[in-house]
Amino acid sequence: MVDPDLADLNAFVAVARARSFRGAAGLRGVSASSLSEALRRLEARLGVRLLNRTTRSVTPTEAGERLLERLAPAFTEIDAALDGINSFRDSPRGTLKLNVPTIVARDILPSITHRFLAAHPGIRLEIATNDSFIDVLAAGFDAGIRYDERIERDMIAVPIGPRVQRFVAAAAPSYLAARGSPTHPRDVLEHACIRHRFGSGVMPAWEFERSGEIIRVSPDGPLIASTLEIEMAAALAGLGLIYSFEEFLRPSLDSGNLKPVLADWWQSFSGPFLYYQSRVHVPAPLRAFLDFIKRERAAQKLPA
Length: 304
Prior knowledge:
This protein has ten helices and 15 strands. The chain is an alpha/beta fold.
């Protein structure tokens, strides 16, 4: 048997973790066909099938699972060893991969990323948006950003962005002129509403709160979308009530293109956190990002 190539073994680990040739290719910046060819070479050299492939899924065989269990920690150690060289440079280098919700990518990260990259020219930042909670490490990311109720307990969480946010309800003046404005959250059920569905398929209820009383409603309406811009266009056109992050609706509220609805029932919630796995060695690009965030918060006298 010819000894397998290290690059082919690394390709196997990437595909087995991602459970997808296309997903692994996207994370590694290579083509899916090159990973497929690497797997064919590896299986031929080892004389055993490592992955079961169908048109819909990629799963490790029993032999593949055993090989992955041994290889994954080894490649983690190799990455750590190579990353350790960063300590000998004036500034860290490498790639930092983050998985974040759409609202964070849109309204929180833009003001942070350009300053961070300007301070660390040797780092390349890759940001993927995903509104579902995923295993960031298994998917090939260094860290994720999520809200506290979605963070696993074995993760380290660091505040990033505003510490308090709100969900707000609003509608175009033309809609309110035609249908009137609800005076209680349950009145929303009598109105046309623009709903948001996450990529996971979840369509969350609208939640309102006042003086400790919480009311959840699941209204109906003419549009269900997974894109904030589509929802906003529909609301501005007077198709119905919209319920979303205040940061997203604020410019239209300030301009008068949207009017607040049930403002005394708007619910506040904790802002997002950057989270990553607790481990002794933190990759230099991630460590640089963590230090940058902490310095920024200290400069703004925000809680660390």
